[in-house]
Design brief:
The structure is a single chain. By secondary structure, the chain is mostly helical. The protein has one domain. Helix content is 72%, strand content 0%. The protein has helices spanning 2-22, 36-47, 54-68, 74-95, 98-122, 134-156. Helix 4 (74-95) runs antiparallel to helix 5 (98-122). The longest helix is centred in the C-terminal third of the chain and has 25 residues, at 98-122. It is globular and about 45 Å long.
Length: 163
């Protein structure tokens, strides 16, 4: 039963994150909106590295590209890099405190944003980078609460990373 619950919880949480990411924000908060899908995917990759790998990251990234009207593969490349790092370092990251994890999350979000910026720059669509990295800070601030909510959800529905 535990393995059946895996994607019954992961997919809905990613869909909710996708909807939150598309939710219109007030003008003063527009540039600070967190990257919900990336944060949720990071949690699941950290919690279940055997199940959430680069293939899932690539598919989620392509969905992000389509929903945001971005260059196809732009977000996918960044998400694959993030999930690869998490999959190779999850044992270290798991033992960090939530504050230390938030710093790692911020660094990974910055790496992802640099990848997106790089691809945008290659095709001549580079955005203004004045407030471009603000979502990384917002994501780091939200990480402890998101981690606790998703961990409790994973425990409540007995989601296991084992096959």
């Amino acid at each position: 039963m535990r393995s059946q619950n895996c994607f019954r919880i992961v997919i809905p949480t990613l869909l909710v994150a996708l909807m939150l990411g598309m939710w219109p924000l007030p003008d003063w908060l527009e540039h600070a909106g967190p990257e919900w899908v990336v944060l949720v995917l990071m949690y699941w990759a950290l919690a279940m590295p055997e199940r959430i790998g680069v293939t899932v990251a690539w598919v989620v990234g392509l969905i992000l590209d389509v929903t945001q009207g971005a260059i196809i593969g732009q977000h996918a490349l960044g998400l694959v890099l993030i999930v690869f790092v998490i999959n190779t370092q999850y044992q270290r990251i798991r033992v960090f405190s939530l504050a230390q994890q938030a710093l790692v999350v911020m660094l990974l979000l910055i790496v992802k944003q640099v990848m997106v910026l790089w691809v945008s720059g290659i095709v001549g669509q580079a955005p203004d980078i004045g407030l471009y990295f603000l979502p990384a800070l917002t994501g780091a601030i939200l990480w402890p609460w998101l981690f606790i909510v998703l961990r409790d959800l994973r425990r409540r529905f007995a989601v296991s990373s084992h096959f």
